[in-house]
Amino acid sequence: MEKILSDQRCIVCNSNELKIIYNTYDRHYGNVNKLFNVTECNSCKLLALSPMITSDELHSMYDDDTYYAYQPFEDGTQKITLLQRIGRSVLKIKAMDPDFDCVNKHILDIGCGSGRELFFYKKRGAMVTGVEISKSGTDFGNKYGLNIFNGTLKEANLEGDKFDYIRSNHSFEHITNPVETVEEIYRITKPGGRVFVGVPNTRSLPYRIFGKYWYYLGVPFHPVNYNPENLIKLFEAKGFKKEKVNYNGNLHGVLGSLQIYLNRNNKKSSSEGLLVNNILLKVVSHQVAKIFNLLKLGDCMEVTFIK
Ligand SMILES: [Zn+2]
What is the whole-number distance in angstroms between the Cα of residue 302 and the centre of ligand 1? Predict the structure, then answer.
């Protein structure tokens, strides 16, 4: 499928050469009846839904009761078995936030879910703030005093030049208005402060292999998907300076994509099937993903910026 759109422009580079490369459905949660167009910019290769989904429509598609990021997190007091501990360390998926002394630092987590990361920053002495569109995620985190605002970043209307560290881990690709969001992030970052953005990477090997079956394409929950260059361009255009790019893909890009490919005719969700529930394949895929990361071809990238 290749149809050039002339009346739309790329939100990052303003090119009007956008072509529809996929017309596809949600392969994760089983909303198979609604089709969405995905466009690719000829110039910067940004992927975006066309027409762009509204944030209200997008939010209405999340199930607060089951979406992973909105679930209660373990605060360290829960007991887990040795076998669980081993399994978790072998299949560990963890954002590689930069390490710094966070005592009395102002830290903001955008799309913080139920606030797990904020909980641990607070424990280390930081002054934390969260922004989260899920009511149940917000309510859970606020039971721990995590100061989470229920709504969008813009609605939160936070103080300017305030935050030493702002993170957005696997939330930025869910945002339908990234340009305005980056402007707002810049406004509230303290001069010299740091921003961490973890998103899927369309320069990854699994995306190149699987295309519309790629696990992280995430239609329509990921209305925009980035590669390192267009993400950096977006942030630099608003005044940030790139500090570092890190690749942090995991088993899902490999195994999840394969399962989605196998499920393409039966339209089952990405968590259903023999592959994704096979522990040995999970371990192998996770190790393969680490090799892709070393080659800078991993499914997820983490870029840090300085204001
Ligand atoms: Zn572009």
Answer: 20
